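Predict structure. Chain length: 221.
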Amino acid sequence: MTRLETFADAAFAFSTALLAISIDEVPANYEELIVALQGAPAFAASMLIILFFWHGHQRWSDRYGLEDSPSVYLTFGLIMMVMIYVYPLKILMESGFGFLTGGWLPSGFEFETYRQFRVLVSLYGAGFMLLCLIMAGLYWHAWRLRNALNMGEEEAFDTRSEALRWGFPVLFSGLIVGLMWVLPDSQVSAVPFLFLLMALFAPVNDWIAQRAARRRFGEPE
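Prediction complete.
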């Protein structure tokens, strides 16, 4: 492990601690315990998003082990954005589960206007886009150093493909944010659930990348 990877792991761990179900105080009675546990679904969903970016950085670090200045700055940017992203992430997840359950899963954040809701979703979408862009930048930087890293043609192709894969969610997130501002108030409540379609990007991107690799290099032996 590099020092950069160790620092990133610690920072991601701290970010997940900020998502804790009850970080400020231990429940003092049964009712408070139930309320705290009702936050578990939003906590788990938020953790999955943080895990998504942590795993992405871990894979990048394991493959290339870079600790030069661009890698350090990009990783610091990733960590900074994750820590800023934690609160919009947690609030949006709690609001989403509260909406789906008719308020049974509570949300401690209240919206007074639809504009405030649009701003929150836009902050979430912008944070997601920036995190994906930074991950794309890390892979693009590794591709630029392909000769210094002694990459073969297939590995260089895969590195560039990985950078492009991280770019697809950026476009989709931008579309969702745009919809939040053009649709009427009666329809915006359901728009954030379009982010769930992000789960389809990984298998679709893998399929596209595999087809492109077979077209260029032939079937694997």
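Summary: The CA atoms of residues 2 and 65 lie 7 Å apart.
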